[in-house]
Amino acid sequence: MKKLLLATAALALSTGFAMADAHGKTIRMGTEGAYPPYNFLNDAGEVDGFEREVGDELCARAELTCEWVTNEWDSIIPNLTSGNYDTIIAGMSITDAREEVIDFTQNYFPPAASAYAAKSADADIAGGVVAAQTSTIQAGHVAESGATLLEFATYDETVAAVNNGEADAVFADKDALAPTVEESAGALMFVGDDVPLGGGIGLGLRESDTELKDKFNAAIQSMKDDGSLNKLIIKWFGEGAKTF
Amino acid sequence: MGHFVIFACTDPQTLSGLSWLTCYLTTGKHLAFYGAFGTVLLLLAVTAPAAMAFGFGGAMAARSRILPLSWLGRGYIAIVRGVPDIAFFLFFVIALDQGIEYLRHKIKCPDWDEPLRQGSDFIVCQAAKMPLGNSPQWIHEAYGFSLAVLTFAIVFGAFSANVLYGAMRAVPHAQLETAEAYGMSPRQTFWRVLVPQMWVYALPGLGNLWMVLIKATPLLFLLGVEDIVYWARELGGAKTPRFTDFPHPDWRMWYFLALLVFYLCFTRVSEIVLDRIMRRLTRGQATAGGEAQRKALT
Q: What is the separation of C-alpha B50 from the centre of its chain, rounded to a whole number of angstroms?
């Protein structure tokens, strides 16, 4: 009798552990919370935006329990690889350089254009001072373009730099700039041509997390197939936004 | 009925002036900002005694007669004082976190066969995660905060060790010789004669350290703890009406001004308290300050 009890206890324990590893785990979604409309903190201090809605829907479809955490953009990749959270869902474009360090799911946002915004139409975007957020594809592009790159830790600060004259123009995702330009009441305008950069936006994952990647890939595919992803893109980025 | 203006914060576009400001300053985000002041004060309250403990231990080790222990104390002081704070903060928190997870992994998952480092990933089994992957967010935050406190304590402990070491040597040697002549053991001499008298020599240096510690709290932000600087930057940034009920232009200057006032008030209060402690400690001491007090009394 005693042996039987022990055996059941051991069995219960071991299945318990197995469950904990596969299902009991909460997936921690790492985001920046400072890049509207992709992700930002709303008035209540919670993560909100396009990626919040997409992420919650993906977790529901993949039957995962998810939790949102914010992290500085600068250290967002190192903190993923060291395991502080399990995904990066922060408007991060899929690039070859990042692929060397982390993995990406298929994109949940199509390859989008980046654009320059400035205070006047004749701003010198080829040889002047251009602000961009640190470690973004836009910063890389400006550095190669011949203009003087002025880097900032957050998107907010890049726009502020143009407003106070520190930079001639800001270079960022067009979809992030669009509401800023719209609300500025003519103070800011788009300058020059749009520049297509990157391979769209995907969820960043540790290279070793292949199971999680498969789950998210399947969930993204199902959202693409039934059109719900396009609906969210239009809701947050307007009718003119590029969809799948 | 009096002329009470009744308003609700549900529709801020209709509000103006003071009622708008009242609603604006009580959003969930602002409450988090106010809470962050508590985080900073808590950090100081926990770090100061912890750093003193490290400092006392370091100073005792440095002046120990046992050579390896003395080397350990001196090495601790020299290394931590010599490395830039920021480098130490970034390195130590990651190293400490991975070290703890590594130990837990060895104990909890002995039959794990995959390598711990796969490329740039650091992977331990789920049971060894610190904190556990399924624990609520507040535990993650408390863990991050504890790592921050420990790091602060180690860094500032080295500085206070140096101050205490100097203060212990500043106690007049004749005092210690007299104690020995009375037949006190080295341990008794240390605790009954040296330690009570050294504080007056240590306090100016320790007070200085306390001021530096207050000013160093924004480093919390580097360690991923959402402190007042993080929230001031987040709240002050320009907000467009699409993403908030309370749009406003770039107000970072005002938020940082509020932080400046907070830090100034806090350091002023500290100065007053430190002055009082100094007056208390100099009483009856064979120092210039003690002498002045005696003269004032007679």
A: 9
Residue of chain B whose Cα is closest to the Cα of A17: B127
What is the tens place of the pLDDT at every residue in B171-223? 999 999 999 999 999 999 999 999 999 999 999 999 999 999 998 888 887 77
Rounded Cα distance between B149 and B46, Å, is: 7
User: B283 in contact with A at a CB cutoff of 8 Å?
Assistant: no
Q: Kindly report the CATH number assigned to the domain that includes residue B225.
A: 1.10.3720.10
Domains in chain A, start-ordered, CATH in brackets? Answer: 15-110+200-237 (3.40.190.10), 113-196 (3.40.190.10)
Inside any domain, residue B98: yes
Residue B155 predicted with pLDDT over 80: yes
Q: How many domains does chain B have?
A: 1
* Interface residue of A26, A43, A162 to substitute, partner B, most B CBs within 10 Å: A43
In-domain check, residue B13 = no
Over residues B58-78, the mean pLDDT reads 92
The answer to whether residue B10 neighbours chain A at the CB level (below 8 Å) is: no
The Cα of B79 is separated from the nearest Cα of chain A by a number of Å equal to 26
Do B122 and A21 lie within an 8 Å CB cutoff?
A: no
Chain B hits for A20, Cβ within 8 Å: 126-127, 134
ipTM above 0.85, yes or no: no
B162 burial (CB, 10 Å; 0-12 / 13-18 / 19+) is buried
How far are the Cα atoms of A100, A143, A200, B88, B132 from residue A203, in angstroms, in the given order?
15, 26, 10, 31, 22
Domain interval for residue B252: 29-297
